[in-house]
Prior knowledge:
Rossmann fold; alpha/beta; 4-stranded parallel beta sheet
Amino acid sequence: MSGVALVIVSHSVQLAEGVVELAAQMAKDVALRAAGGTDDGRIGTSFDKVNDAVTELRAAGHDVAILTDLGSATMTVESVLDFLDDEEAAHVKFADGPLVEGAVAAAVTAQVGGDLDAVVAAGRARELFS
Length: 130
């Protein structure tokens, strides 16, 4: 299966997994990965968790949209993006928007066949749920 997949990055394992669970209810065919918490299970973010999720999804042939909960999660994602070569970077983008609403909107857009740019735009759209 190809198409656009999502990585949900949160400081909390439970929050990342909950957003994945919610988005999956609206987009059953979209690959979703949670990358929450630190490597040892504390509150925080992990470069390795985010990078591993992106690597797994890219290896399966997906383009990848990434959403985050807070500023330092965004910094972690930006670091992961910085390590991608130019070819891979064309297939992985950050959707800077509201985590829950953005993830649902992005997942639904991916479910109906939206390309990476459309999925990222949906994930960034703050006014969808206002």
